Amino acid sequence: MVIMSATLDFLSVNVWHILMAIGNLLILVLILKKFLFKPVQNILKQREEEISQTYGKADKALEEAESEKELYRQKLDGAKAEADSLIESASKRAKEESSEIISAAREEAAARRRRADEDIELAKKKAAEELKGSVSEMVIGLASEVVGREIDEKAHAALIDEAIESLGE
Amino acid sequence: MEIEVTGAKILFELPFGITITETQVNMWLVMLGIAIFCIWLTHDLKVRPTSRRQLVAEFLVKTTENFVTGNMGAAWKGFVPYIAALFSLAMFSSLISLLGMYPPTSDLNTTAGWAIMTFVMITFFKIKTNGPLGYAKSLTEPIFIMTPMNVLGEFATPLSMAFRMFGNVASGTVVSALVYAALAAANNALFGWLPGILGEMAEKLPILQLGLPAVLSLYFDVFSGVLQAFIFCMLTMLYIASAAEKE
C-alpha cells in the first residue's frame, strides 16, 4: 500500500470505482433494511396487532355487556311479576281474612243476642211465676180474711192460677 | 493565475491496481453516518411511542414507503429500501461538500455505478416480464432497421442519468472554484493598489469572497444536491416500473 498524493482526472472511468459505488449502494440497502426498515416495520406490525386485539376485546366486552343487560332485564321482569303475584295473593288473603273475621264477629254477636234474648225470656218467665205465686197467695190471704174461713190452700191455688192465666193472656 | 479542476485525490493504492480515492472514503463516511443515525433512531422502539426520535423513524419509513408505492404501485414495497438507500446516499454524498469535503457524486464512477444498477434492473424486469424473446423482439420494433437505434436508446438511459447527476454536482464545484478565483482577482485589483503594508494586508483579506460563494453553495450544494438525488430516484422508479409493465 502506497500513500499517493496524485489526483484522478476530472473525468475518469475506473471499473473498480464503479464496482465499489455499486457495492456501497447495496451495502447501504442492507444497512437501511436492518437498522431502519425492519425494526420500524416490526413495531408498526406489533402496533397493528395490538390495536386489532384491543378492538376484539372491546367488541367482546360490548357483546357480554349486551347479553348481561338482557339477562338482568329478564330477571327484573321476573321479579316484577313475582312481586305483583305476591301483592295480589296477599291482598286476596287479607280480604278473605277480613271477611272471615267480620262474619265470625257477626255470628258471635248474633249468638250473644240470642243468648241475651233467652235470658230475658227466662227472667220474664221467672218473674211471671214469682208474681203468679205471690198474687195467688195474696188473693188467698185476702179471700180467707174476707171469707173468714180457711180455704183449702192447695185446692184453691190451682183455681186461682187458672184465673190468672186466663187474665194474663 | 491558474485554476486547476481535478477529480478525487488518490489516497491509497491496493494490489491489482485498485485505488482508494476521496470518493470511496467520503462515501464510506456518509454510509457510516447514515448507519449510526439509523441505529440511533431505531434503538429502543416501543409499540406505544414515547419519544420524538421514534416518530421521526416512523415518519421516514412511512414517507419513503408512500413515495415508492405511490410512484410504482403497491406491489413494489420490497423496493423501498433500495430507493431509500439510493436517495440518502446520493443526497448526503452531495451535501458533504458543505463540510468542505470532496462530494463522491462529482465522481463520474459513482453516478455511473448507480446508473448501471438502474440499467441492469430495467433490463432484468423487461426480460422477466416479456421473456428473452419478447425483449429481443421489442428491440426490432417498429421495423427491423430500427434495431441499432433501439439498442442505443437502451444504453442512453443509464448514460444520461449518470452524466446528469455527475454534471450537476461537478459543475457546481467548477463554477464555485471559478467564482472564487474571480472574486480573489477582483479583491486584489480593488485593494492591491493601497500603499505599503495596508495593500498587502488587504490583498490577503478575502473581503469580496464573503457573500457570493455562500449563495452559490446554497444552490449548487444544497438545492442541486437534493434535487439531483430526487431526480435520480424518480427516474429509477419510473423506468423500472414501466419496464415491468406488459407491453
Number of strands of chain B: 2
Q: What is the overall shape of chain B? A: globular
Total helices of chain A: the number is: 2
Main pleated sheet of chain B: 2 strands, antiparallel
**Gross morphology of chain A:** rod-shaped
Order of helices and strands of chain B: EEHHHHHHH
- The multimeric state of the shown protein is heterodimer
End-to-end Cα distance of chain A, whole Å, is 173 Å
Number of domains of chain A: 1
β-strand percent of chain B reads under 5%
Mean pLDDT of chain B: 85
Relative strand content of chain A: under 5%
Average pLDDT figure of chain A: 86
Instruction: Calculate the terminal CA-CA distance of chain B, rounded to whole Å.
Output: 58 Å
Q: For the CA atoms, what is the radius of gyration of chain A? A: 65 Å
Strand order across the biggest sheet of chain B? 1-2
Structural class of chain A: mainly alpha
Please give the count of helices of chain B: 7
Q: What would a concise description of this structure say?
A:
The complex is a heterodimer of chains A (169) and B (247). Chain A is mostly helical and 169 residues long. Chain A has helices spanning 15-147, 153-168; one strand at residues 2-3.
Any chance you could write out the topology, listing elements then pairs?
The complex is a heterodimer of chains A (169) and B (247).
Chain A: E1 2-3, H1 15-147, H2 153-168
Helix pairs in contact in A: 1-2
Chain B: E1 10-13, E2 19-21, H1 22-42, H2 52-72, H3 80-95, H4 108-139, H5 147-191, H6 196-204, H7 212-243
Antiparallel strand pairs in B: 1-2
Q: Top keywords for this entry?
A:
heterodimer; A: 169 residues; mainly alpha; 88% helix; 1% strand; rod-shaped; B: 247 residues; two-stranded antiparallel sheet; 7 helices; 2 strands; 71% helix
